[in-house]
Predict the 3D structure of the following.
Amino acid sequence: MAAYKKHLLTTHLDIVLSLSVIADAASMGPTFVRDELENLTDSDYESDCRLEIPDFHTASGEIDDMQNDSDTEEVSHPQVHVHPSGQETIPGAGRPLGEVVGYTELNMARTDDPWSPFSSENDFNLASWFVQSKVAKSQIDVYFVEGLGGTDSRSFQSAYTLRQHLNILDPFREYLVWAIASIDNGRHATTFYYRNIIDCVRYLIRQVAYSSDMVYAPIREYDSSRERLYSEMHTVDWWWDMQV
Amino acid sequence: MVPIIGLSDQTHLTNFSGDKKAWPVYMMIGNILSRTRSSPAKMPILLLKLLPVPPKFTGETAHANEAQRQTNTDVLRAVFDLALVPLQQVAREGTVMDCADGKTLLCFPILSAWIADHAEHAALQGIGSKSCPKCEVPCEELGGDPRQMYETRDYMLYRERALRHEPAEAAGIAE
């Protein structure tokens, strides 16, 4: 399901871009977006069945952010209530070394065919409903066997193919493979599972869904009377001291 | 720099079939702003590993319990060594990573914080449940004079002492 939600965050952004409803997004205003975010944070995994609409607002907010903060070092995030009037950062921190191979191609593909790997918006919405209402696998199969979907042709015909489609949505799955190790203390052996921590970091840091909320360098923020403002992790001294 | 934030807690699953427990360890990265990082719907937290839950103490003899406790500590340490060993070199020398904005950056992933309750800290760091996981205040002086400063715990010292016992082999870890 993680892949699906990330897809909503990323592809929705592109859909919104390609449909050029940026004007609407701007009129909503950032305060509204913030309210939605707080609601989202309060909700837990189980009761979160109203993802679609908040995500749309979130996505539009992210577009707003992206246009304003193309430079991550200038990030000014909405959670600082007193708007910082001065900032400084370590020169050269968070300096890009090069371009990610295949990044533009991936985003182009997302914009050209936003519903991929599903064949149409209708198709995507059905899958979206299956996922969000947590329909059991067996019931998804029943849906297709009984022909409840009518004569519409679908790009997936079973719970299995739906799962395959969802897997395609997450192109960096290979970072998240599990390694298995076992412990034998003489009397009984126990197996346990772990992931490579570096690969987990790689996976998280390249998620396009987070791109508007990423910081790569520490900053020091000041208000108008030169008082330090502390808010996020990158505004405190620890990060500053650790930065090489 | 990429600060890694770890989280772990032992969770009780069921009383049946002998008190089953799960012991998940999660991770997230501090580069994501907290509004996204704290939102479960955006999946910023990855399950890093499932720690092996040690068997219950048999309670037959005090000596057997003590031996079991020692094994559990060794196993825990060995498992963490195994999982965190890729960090050792990369944290110092850095590695080039693909980032969300389409650029490649030289990244230094550093384990920066561990979110756990006190019982969990005590279990992970192999200290008594009455001692402070951060500093070396004796348990009688807890809640004493706040101006009194104590040494920060030096876990590397404990670790080196433990490494001489070669816990990985003692615990019989195999990949």
Residues 174-206 of chain A form one domain.
